[in-house]
Write a structure and sequence with these properties.
The chain has 14 helices and 2 strands; from the N terminus they run H-H-H-H-E-E-H-H-H-H-H-H-H-H-H-H. It is mainly α and about 280 residues long. It has one domain: Farnesyl Diphosphate Synthase.
């Protein structure tokens, strides 16, 4: 756990440093409200741990990790506008706090800071751009062409959540100067973890308590969103089992990676297990 605490502290320190440079003052306050309001920092941790697993250092990967966290935060601002959700991570969502226009500008500001961090490496920029295309397709699909079976749901989950997880791990591999085969294996690991994460998120929305979760529940049903328990025949228990199968596939993908740091790899294995057991 000490390793994770140090990595988390490194991420938080660099995140604050990046946000401190945002201008003007009004935008600075808005991006800080969004990006520093909590969160598990799962994606940047994946970036750092993936990098360390294949021989890089946390310092090599921290900028890319902070960048993917900023992309994720920007996407949540838009999600909350679409969902009309007034709560995010236990605090007021950006649009509810500042209004729709400032929230959209906040999302743009977060993306701008993110791509500044990726700009030193064309491969990193490409990976994140591809992930954002997938995310955009997923968000559009969710609004206009709701899936009505498990296969279509899985495609949506891959685009909506798996794509940014894949990018997070691939960024870590790129930071460690890995070969394309290693980049792909780590990407598959993380994509599957992301899909499992989304499925578990859907289950929690259906069955968890809002206070414990830190955000409103029952939202998927109320908004007729394509939750795994809404658009498939899977019960919450069945959906958890399906998520667990994705997590096992993630672990299989990780087995294809030549490991330089077994401790970092062990944390990636634990993450694959955690995403299907988490309660918030």
């Amino acid at each position: 756990m000490e390793l994770l605490k140090r990595r988390r502290a490194l991420i938080e320190e660099r995140l604050v440093e990046v946000l401190d440079g945002v201008e003007p003052e009004t935008l600075n306050g808005e991006v800080r409200h969004v990006a520093l309001s909590g969160g598990k920092r799962v994606r940047p941790m994946v970036t750092i741990l993936a990098c360390e697993t294949v021989g890089g250092t946390a310092e090599d990967a921290v900028d890319f990790g902070v960048g993917i966290e900023l992309v994720h935060a920007a996407s949540l601002v838009v999600d909350d506008i679409i969902d009309r959700s007034e709560l995010r991570r236990g605090t007021t969502s950006a649009w509810a706090e500042f209004g729709y226009g400032p929230a959209i500008i906040t999302s743009d500001g977060l993306l701008g800071e993110a791509f500044a961090l990726f700009s030193s490496d064309p491969d990193a920029t490409r990976v994140v751009a591809e992930a954002m295309v997938e995310l955009g397709i997923g968000e559009a699909t969710e609004l206009t062409a709701e899936p009505d079976n498990e296969d279509e749901y899985m495609t949506l989950a891959r685009r909506k959540t798996g794509a940014l997880f894949r990018a997070a791990a691939e960024l870590g591999a790129i930071a460690a100067d890995s070969d394309p085969v290693t980049v792909e294996a780590l990407g598959e690991y993380a994509e599957r973890v992301g899909i499992a994460f989304q499925m578990r998120d859907d289950v929690l929305d259906a069955v968890a308590d809002a206070d414990g979760l830190g955000k409103p529940t029952g939202h998927d049903a109320a908004m007729e969103r394509p939750s795994v328990v809404q658009v498939t025949d899977l019960s919450p228990a069945d959906a958890n089992n399906r998520a667990r199968a994705e997590a096992e596939g993630a672990i299989d993908a990780l087995e294809r990676v030549d490991v330089a740091d077994p401790a970092a790899r062990e944390y990636l294995l634990e993450l694959a297990e955690f995403v299907v057991e988490r309660e918030r």
